[in-house]
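Hey team,

Filing this mostly as a record. A colleague (T.K.) asked me to run one chain through the structure pipeline before their review meeting, and I want the input and output archived in the tracker in case anyone asks later how it was produced. No errors, nothing strange. Just documentation.

Input sequence:
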Amino acid sequence: MSYTLIFTNSYKKRAKRFARQHPELKEQYRKTLLLLTQNPYHPSLRLHP
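Output structure:
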C-alpha cells in the first residue's frame, strides 16, 4: 500500500533551507521520505505510536 504525502508551503520552504544547510544529508532525507510514503509505520523511521 502506498501513501501520499502532502507538503505545505511552509514545509517546502523549510525543507529547501534544510537541504541548503545540510547537503550531505540530502540523499538520506530523500530515502526517508520514500520510506514514509511506502510504510509510515516502518520501525526505522522511529516514530512514536
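Quick notes for T.K.: The helical segments are 9-21, 26-38. The chain has a mean pLDDT of 92.
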